[in-house]
Fold each of these.
Amino acid sequence: MIQHQFCTDILNRIDNLLAEGKEITIAIDGNSGSGKSTLAHDLSKIYDCNVFHMDDFFLRPEQKTVKRIQEVGGNVDYERFKHEVLDKLKKNQEFKYQIYDCSQGRLTDYIKVSPKGLNIVEGVYSMHPTLRHYYDLKIFLCIDAETQSQRILERSGKYMLQRFLNEWIPLENEYFSKIRISEICDLVITCS
């Protein structure tokens, strides 16, 4: 099921946190193509949990000001994610949030969330400085550039690979290095 290196360590850490009897939230951040969504999906087959995707919280077109785009980690709507998801998880009651559809450039469907003992946040920018203190376990997945390009090409095609290489990956790398994401994580896993 889980094909990630150190999967036993991930499961042990989650099990130990759950054994404490409190609701926990974990974050999985890392390079595009490193397996964040796959790991979250695999964990959801093992645990009864909620999974949240940072891709559902990218900036809407009207939010993409020059100042905001120049902010390290600023191309995700971390304020909305904090308000609509992380703050509400702490209340331990049902809530809903709206997802952003990049292809339509607007907010679309609502997702209803019921309280669960485990909540997983996956995606680049999930450990933005305004969000990271919400997490009980922080995991960083990294991947070498060649494997990353191959995975993105297979998943998204040539056109999107060029967009990743020219636009999104440089922004992600700046976020990882300037905010030192891997250094604040509990686990750093190199994917192959």
Note: The CA atoms of residues 86 and 134 lie 7 Å apart.
Amino acid sequence: MSEMSDILFEEARRRLSQVRNIVAVTAGKGGVGKSFVSTSLALALAERGKKVGLLDLDVHGSSVPIMLGLKEEVRAGKEGFRPVRKHNVEIMSIGLLTKDSPVLIKGKDKMDLITSLVALTSWGNLDYLVIDLPPGTGDEVLWVIRVIRNLRSAGALVVTMPSMLSRSVVRKSLRLLVDEGIRILGLVENMSYFKCGKEEIRPFGYGSGEDLAKEFKTRLLVRLPIEPRVEKAMDEGYPPYLASNELRTTFSSLAAAVESLLQKA
């Protein structure tokens, strides 16, 4: 890294070390609902009375502003960028900076954007910071992992779905976390089932989350249903996890589990 990159890396570590608890949400691939889980977890923690921040670092596919209907402009102060506040959550997203424009950057420029956003955002006094990582296991993911590595109360939540393809790719993310010494809090299996009357149907099969949890000596924390009312909730300006009582209850359980696990750090 260059001298400036080193300075920003250390500033990022300093700022994040002031947060009481950090939850990095990751997945081996896009399209499994990682941002939905990140956003809903942050909102569920806030609903439990915690001071929560949500940091969206997905450069090319930022969806947090869309999920929460964010139109506000990011402002800068003496301490750096000021997050946007909505639903009692402090939110910073690359999507708030780029709006609807495609982000035509790669390599070093992409890393500089992520580094600057993490190092220059002023979060204030937070109980939890949920970080929505970019998909995959590329340089930007590795950079964030190394920023939070060795922080006392930080861990990763891994999102998967019950399919052979998802399982094979998510396994790589889990292996990266183990190799880098990041605590794995557990797995979330998204799009696990849907209800047809009283019958629970699993269109993608069984066992993915349980198998991965067993293999990596962690736990499958929750299974999330396929819920078509999520789109309707966002269209009407509601947080997506409020689309059904089942989703709200499940994310409340996930928030409680994350709290409990981090308290044991």
Note: The two ends are 31 Å apart (CA to CA).
